[in-house]
Amino acid sequence: MNPQKSYPIVLSIAGSDSSGGAGIQADLKTFSALGVYGATAITAITAQNTLGVHSQCAIDAQMVYDQIVAVIDDLHPTFVKIGMLSNVDVVNAVVAALSKYSLSIILDPVMVSSSGHRLLSLEAQDVVKNKLIPMSVLVTPNIPEMMALTNMTLATNEEKERAAQCLFDHGAMSILLKGGHEDGDIKTDILYTKTEQGIQVTHFDSTSISTNNIHGTGCTLSSAITAFMARGYCMQEAVAKAKMYITEAIMAGADVKVGNGFGPVNHLFNPQKMILNDFR
Question: How far apart are CA 169 and CA 165, in angstroms?
Fold first, then answer.
């Protein structure tokens, strides 16, 4: 009997976090919590814990390419989330593989860990900017990543908008500038969307939560956006719902001790049943 139902399927292309709080592990937890089916292509293995990254090892570029093609050819994901890419060979392999398909890509340009360990080479950073950003429907840099990509300061809203325009000039379609690194009790993420009338700007405010358990929040947010878009929400709705999800996940894990440093959020505070669609 042929299947009559299907899941929303998404692919995460990212590195493995041995402590389970970020990277591929966080992505899969987020996808599962939000009712979508997650597949993976692992780009690097990291030895890390809540105290920081000890070391990393990039996966062979051909193997990265083969993982992506194997998943897409059989499972046919509708959306792809990209995280840690490690080096220029891996970035080029990802570009080559995804160029074969028409997929919606959400790019989280992971460059440096919260403990200061570089996760993307400078040479690879340029390839991400020139090749992957134009392929992506949404790019989700934090403040340091946006500064690295544009070589601009981001002290004011005007400077942030000029930096967004810089990425638009490189082919970006939409940018979610994450404000978690800024001071203050209110953190603001800004969604810049390129329209025929100019740049549309939408602010998403959230109250700071007093906790050290913030490991993997960037990975989790971009994965949540991917999941909600795969479920059929438009980008603004997906970002709003993902912001609500990550806020609740941080709150749910705020008082839990995992490790001796920056612990994970509680991805599974309210897991949803797998979404079922009519099979096509």
Answer: 6
pLDDT values of the chain reduced to their tens digit, one per residue, 280 residues: 566 899 999 999 999 999 999 999 999 999 999 999 999 999 999 999 999 999 999 999 999 999 999 999 999 999 999 999 989 999 999 999 999 999 999 999 988 766 666 778 788 889 999 999 999 999 999 999 999 899 999 999 999 999 999 999 999 999 999 987 677 789 899 999 988 888 899 999 999 999 999 999 999 999 999 999 999 999 999 999 999 999 999 999 999 999 999 999 999 999 999 999 987 6
CB contact at 8 A, 227 and 104? no
Amino acid at 161: E
- pTM higher than 0.90, yes or no? yes
CB 107 within 8 A of CB 132: yes
Asked whether the beta carbons of 148 and 111 are under 8 A apart, the reply is yes
Residue written as token pair 């099979």: 279
